[in-house]
Amino acid sequence: MRHAAFRIIFVVFSKQRFQARHRVRAAIVAAFVVVVLVECVLCNVPFFRSLAASGDSAAAYNTLGPGLERRDDGLLEVIDPTQAYLQVAADGSSDYVRVVPVPDEVLQGAEQQGERVLRTVRVRPDADRRACELTSVSLDSSRSLYVRAAAGRTVRVQVVEPKGSLIPFEAVRANVRVPFSVSPLRVALLVLALVLVALWRPGSRLWKVPLDTSSVRQRVALGVLLAIPGVATAAVVVWQLVSAVPLSFHTDGMYTYDYDQYDHVARALLDGHAWLDLDVPQGLRDADNPYDVATRQQLLADGVSPVYWDYAFFNGRWYSYFGVVPALLLFVPYRAVTSLWVDGGLMMPSGAAVPLLMFGFLVFACLLTIRVIKRVRPHVSVAAVSMLCVFVLLASNASYLWYRTNFYSVPIAASLLLSTLGLWLWLGAERPSAANAGEDGKVNAVGSLSLPRLAAGSVCIAANVGCRPSFVVVAFAAFPLFWPQIRAIAKQLRDGVFASGAHGRACAMLHALRAPLAVLVPALVVVVPLFAYNMVRFSSPFDFGSSYQITVTDMTSYHQSWSNFIWTVAYYLFLPLRWTNMFPFLAVDPTPLKDWGFTEAMPGGLFAMAPLALASLACPFLRRHMRARGHTGMWRTLTTFLLLSLLIVALDARLGGLGWRYIADFGWLFALASLPLLLIALDCDRPRLCWLLRVLVLALLLFMLAVTVLSLFLYGRDDELIRNNSGLFHDVQSWFTLI
User: Fold this and answer.
1) 3-state secondary structure of 264
2) Which is nearest to 568 in space by CA: 629, 464, 655?
3) Which of 43, 49, 187, 336 has the maximum number of C-beta atoms within 10 A of its C-beta?
4) Which residues, at least 6 apart from 233, have a Cβ–Cβ distance to it below 8 Å?
């Protein structure tokens, strides 16, 4: 009987494994078919539409509008923007025209003469006198040179550029056949989307795998996944270090824009002083009020130079008002080490520092999210954990910092890394039983704390004072996080007062204060030198120098109005997305203010770009639910995260204005506070409702991914992709404009 039962079990098990393998293979084949159909059919609709194109050579002759003039070297010059066009005959056999650029030799000759030839040109095709959509073409993207213009007689390509622009067009060809194209990037994105849907769909096997942080297999899987962005980060950092050049730009009569601010700080520190080794013109030094905009404009008109934009000017010297900790962590060590073989050392560009810091944030944001989930919902599925890790990264606005890697992003990236690392260490300093202790505090919570982790977490969080100071409010999370331990310490202190003998009282007091000292002493070791650094520079330990920056207004007297404050808070959280019918289908949203204030173009507020973050607002109302599961301590902590995120929103709105990058200050805290409700939705006990909720969360998460990707292509944002990487922008744009 035993052998028969064993055989039955073996056969059933083998059959289940065979069926599972069969389903996996079928899914892979189906995904392959979908990718092939989408890439070879849907994305190549222009090829199939233009198969019957005549390619008539008579269409090679162009008529130039009176607003364009052909130079001897073959370039076109715009002399009248209202009549700048190229017209060509069409026979209706193709819905597309092709812009033929001038030879590379012509472009090189113009560049050698110091002339600026447009490599990206805005055009508007008119088909049979019917205006089509405005678009742009780029010499760096061969696919973008094909423009859709369905005409039966004539096509007029209007050049929409200002007078004096040099246009690198040789001709416009009608009746053309669009070539068949396979884009590796598009295929990769399709595969990624299918993989995510396959892994996160409600019927995925990942929903049946519970989270087990002690599992070697799950740890290795996480390590492998994190290694992918790690390798990409290493490649970017090496490329940035090898190709590093000074980023300083100056035009006569204008400000000097120097983006190597952190390298200047590193040099100053290595030379033993706090001020930057930058020239100070005598006219600026002698000015009665160098912060006054009119005074500075007059100095620039008089030829006073250099006047550095967005540097702090105080008592006749230049300073950086950005936090010094990133310089101590990265820029100073790199220049010091490279000075061993290069005289004076090499410069670390911000483009290398930001990816390093952001990769650290990616790692510890995921680890922190997993640790919080383990405390809130210990046996939740791996599918839910992976979705929520991606959600936290998207809601944190990390994509903005990965994209825009200049010195403005350095302190924010450093604070994101230090804050998530510090909280991860603090959460790991206590055992779950102590973390979830009841209000009576009877658990021996103090003895369960790891003093080294407490101290290391304090160092990280205190270091925010020297990065982005608003992040230091995260330190208040220590109170709800360690509330049982605080109650136990208070009780020990009360008992110590009544201990017998002075020696006994002292020992009892010191024993009770071990944990508080492990938090406070390391924090003071970090904060006191930073305050001293401020004292040396600006004669006050609490003055970080932002009031002395040379910028669009006099910051020594500027204060954000309260009407601006209210609107800025509303924009940060609720600014709606603005959709358009043209690529990238998303546009920056106007953010009018009653009075002048700093504003940065942004597509929407946090809750519009990351709607799942709205779940954070439910956190205060989940106390009874979490208390029933024994998670009162985490309810306090996550509710505090919500309150701290609102506090940082208020601080940013009052002190910094409206900046897209500033969403990174508080977005991750909102995301962490959203975890309890999202975990309830993803781990619902009712099967049908659970299926619907998982589909809803998946749809919103994919929506967030789409918004994040599209926001990289926005017109009007700082460091537009159409300017920084015109080839990539137009390659992706052509996926949509030609169909």
Assistant:
1) helix
2) 655
3) 43
4) 355, 356, 358, 359
Q: Which of 649, 680, 653, 686 is nearest to 666 (CA)?
A: 649
Q: How far is CA 229 from the centre of its chain?
A: 14
CA-nearest of 669, 613, 598 to 638 is: 669
For the CA atoms of the chain, what is the radius of gyration?
31
Reply yes or no: is the peptide bond before residue 584 cis, omega within 30 of 0.
yes
Q: Please state the three-class secondary structure of 117-170 as a single string.
A: ECCEEEEEEEECCEECCCEEEECCCHHHHEEECCCCCEEEEEECCCCCCEECEE
Per-residue confidence band for 442, with pLDDT thresholds at 50, 70 and 90: very low
- List, in order, residues 6 or more apart from 127 with CB less than 8 Å away: 90, 149, 150, 151, 155
Task: Check if the beta carbon of residue 78 is closer than 8 Å to that of residue 149.
Answer: no
Q: Which amino acid belongs to residue 95? A: D
- The residues that bridge with 85 in the sheet, in sequence order, are 158
* Cβ-Cβ contacts under 8 Å for 318 (sequence gap 6 or more): 275, 276, 278, 280, 308, 311, 312
Coil, helix or strand at residue 192: helix
- DSSP category for residue 249: E
- Residue 297, SS3 per DSSP: helix
Structure tokens at 47: 């090829």
Q: pLDDT tens digits for 511-529?
A: 778 889 999 999 999 999 9
Query: Is residue 669 a contact partner of residue 576, using CB atoms and an 8 Å limit?
Result: no
Domains and CATH numbers, the chain: 49-181 (2.60.120), 258-348 (no CATH), 351-731 (no CATH)
- Do 597 and 561 meet the contact criterion of CB atoms below 8 Å apart? yes
Q: In this predicted model, what pLDDT tens digit does every residue of 90-105 receive, in sequence order?
A: 888 999 999 999 999 9
For 715, the token pair is 């017109």
Q: Which two tokens stand for residue 172?
A: 């416009």
> How far apart are alpha carbons 256 and 253 in whole angstroms?
9
CA distance 591 to 662: 15
Structure tokens at 396: 């944190």
Torsion region of 347: left, alpha or beta (phi above 0 gives left; psi -120 to 50 gives alpha): beta
Cα–Cα distances (Å) from 219 to 212, 223, 359, 411, 706, in that order, read: 9, 6, 18, 30, 29
